[in-house]
Write a structure and sequence with these properties.
single chain, alpha+beta, twelve-stranded mixed sheet
Length: 264
């Protein structure tokens, strides 16, 4: 498969995940118009308040319509563009008063293809028991780990992880236990042949034991079992080396554009 094809699969999966999990908050608004998707929740994390190009036929006017909708809501937001693919929208964003976030806001999109089954096996952690979440108790544990692991506000996890996800066949929520205590989290989201890897977090006291890699490997393995042959994710600087050892590589970078007050 070409890199262009892999980029398309990664992008499709990320949007499906974002628009899917925000249904956990009653204040979410997802608008699709003119090849552009606008995701607005008011949650204090820019992933869940952004305008993205969804289809090739998107136009600058469509992007600016998303910006206008976000401005009416008055919550902080970003427009996230794929470097080298969505560059034609930059002049319209600059004219509208948005500015580039720079390297600090760059997000790498990573893909593993073909999926390395040997790498998955090598990154198991025998002392980590990874369970699929099946009830509200598991959702609560997942939320606590995500909040502690990412250092985010509890509202983010509450607004993007809920029992309703357990009824969605494309989504699997995970919690990893060590010594009987919940220490790691993960989430898989399937779109066609792609398994998306999300919410990989480990509490501070359980880090540097390979739990993040083990959780990632489990999400990938379950995706393979469900028929996926591509894995995709968006990496942080901390997580990227872990993902590279599991066969992921950067295929695209996303740049964020925002109001100058947000960038200050």
């Amino acid at each position: 498969m070409t890199d262009d094809g892999l980029i398309a699969l990664e992008h499709e999966n990320w949007i499906a995940y974002l628009t899917g999990v925000v249904r956990c908050t009653g204040q979410a608004r997802v608008t699709r118009a003119g090849g552009v998707v606008t995701i607005l929740t008011g949650l204090p994390f820019d992933w869940f308040n952004q305008v993205m190009i969804e289809r090739k036929e998107a136009t600058p006017a469509g992007v600016l319509a998303g910006v206008a909708e976000a401005r009416r809501r008055s919550d902080p937001f970003v427009v996230r563009l794929r470097d080298g693919i969505d560059d034609r929208f930059i002049p319209a964003l600059i004219e509208a008063g948005l500015g580039p976030g720079g390297a600090a806001t760059s997000t790498p999109g990573m893909v593993a293809f073909p999926i390395d089954h040997d790498a998955i096996g090598r990154h198991a952690a025998p002392d980590l028991e990874i369970r699929r979440v099946t009830d509200a108790t598991g959702i609560d544990a997942h939320r606590r780990i995500v909040t502690a692991g990412f250092g985010s506000e509890p509202a983010v996890a509450r607004g993007t992880a809920c029992a309703d996800l357990l009824d969605r066949p494309e989504c699997v929520v995970y919690v990893g236990y060590a010594g009987g205590a919940p220490v790691a989290s993960g989430l898989g989201w399937r779109t066609g042949r792609t398994i998306g890897v999300y919410s990989i977090a480990t509490i501070a006291s359980a880090r540097r034991r390979g739990y993040g890699a083990a959780m990632t490997a489990r999400v990938m393995a379950d995706g393979v079992a469900a028929g996926c042959d591509v894995a995709a994710l968006q990496a942080s600087d901390i997580g990227r080396p872990i993902y590279e050892r599991l066969g992921f590589r950067i295929v695209v970078r996303y740049s964020a554009y925002a109001e100058p007050t947000l960038l200050a």
